[in-house]
Amino acid sequence: MSEPFDLPFDLIVIGGGVNGAGIARDAAGRGAKVLLLEARDLASGTSSASTKLVHGGLRYLEYYEFALVREALTEREILWGIAPHIVRPLRFVLPWMPHLRPRWMLRLGLLLYDHLGTHNRLPGAKSIDLTRHPAGGALAGGITRGFEYSDGWVDDARLVALNALDAAERGAQVRTHTPVTAARREGGLWAVETPAGTFHGRALVNAGGPGADDVARLAGEEPEFHVRRVRGSHIVTRKLFDHPFAYIFQLPDTRICFALPYEEDFTLIGTTDRDHTGSLVDVRAGGDEVAYLCEAASRYLAKPVTQADVVWTYSGVRALIDDGSGRPEAATRGYRIPLSDPAEGAPLLGVYGGKITSCRHLAEAAVDELAKRLPALSGPAWTAKAPLPGGDFPREGQAALIAGLAARYPFLSSAEATRIVRAYGTRAERWLGSAKGWNDLGRHFGAGLSEAEIAYLREVEWARSAEDVLWRRSKLGLHMSEAERVEVEAFMGS
Description:
The chain is an alpha+beta fold.
């Protein structure tokens, strides 16, 4: 990690979600002195609470968001290329129900979806007979026809952590648990106040996500684009089907619902779209949302999903641009990055809206915009081809990397080697070291979590608490008993 810079910074970024971390990475790679400030942990809000997909957004075609879908499909390929450890292809099955969208409409939409992206290396869509398809066996009787198409999976919280890590390795300072209490223009610079002191920067980025309006007001500005806070909730159950396909279900209210293979032993079902008016700190799924998702999946699956099947829920608040849409799901997933007028003094760039798939392109566009006012950002765009930490291997090479790790560390089970590669890629050996067995990695907490891994996450990836380790840097909390989780909490607290 870098030593502190001489003040002032070229750029101060407020918000350690995927957009803030991505902007910090891009700017640091162009040679700017960057400070990233996050009030809590990296990805502690929306950026760890997505549906874990890098996708074009098939349903956005119904709202004629063709440019948004094209950008997202292009970015899907780029993210897979620069982060093949945390991004992987996933085939989706779309069962057809005769009383919902007609088959011709679905076929046409999927044809358009396949052709909107550029350099698409994933297999295209096709019609399928669900009486013969592997995904058909888990579906209710009478569902016989459907479609299969490609999209991608991403570990969203690790995407944030790896962007921040790359930013730090390129010279940025990353300060978590450092809330901003005020910001003001002062002597041609921004003065940003925090409990750790006041930092000065030539430009300020408001990447507060669903709190962007609040951050703007801390800086004495009226937001140019108001944020519509929309809560998306998910449920996790024990594994509901034993095949590698994901489902996308159409619902009678015109929404869609995903059911995805999750963490080997579980199924992830989501998401809802509800306007959110409460706190952004402790966001939880309402009982009605859990019931909605159970009912949505039960419409299609042979075995009904009940609330007793739910082992975990999580929710995040999306920061959508308030475009006046009546229904939350109809609000645009596009983004705006307004830059303040030069007459106002030191630049302020706001980030409003966006989706996780477009995070790299959004960051590039934001830094390009800031470069008009900051000479330190005059370098060329670079992030489309530079691997994220651990991602420096061929995009189709994950299986070979897992096999190689298992050979070097034969005490790892196949599932453990897979989990480690999908988190750390080529950097797994940085904490596995010369270990010949679990005893060489220190204390073992269960579910494959060792003292050596926790030490790495603390020293390199800013983890401070058991929640940071068990529910953001990994999802090992799902695989542990309550007693094991408490043991990690006690250890991290020490």
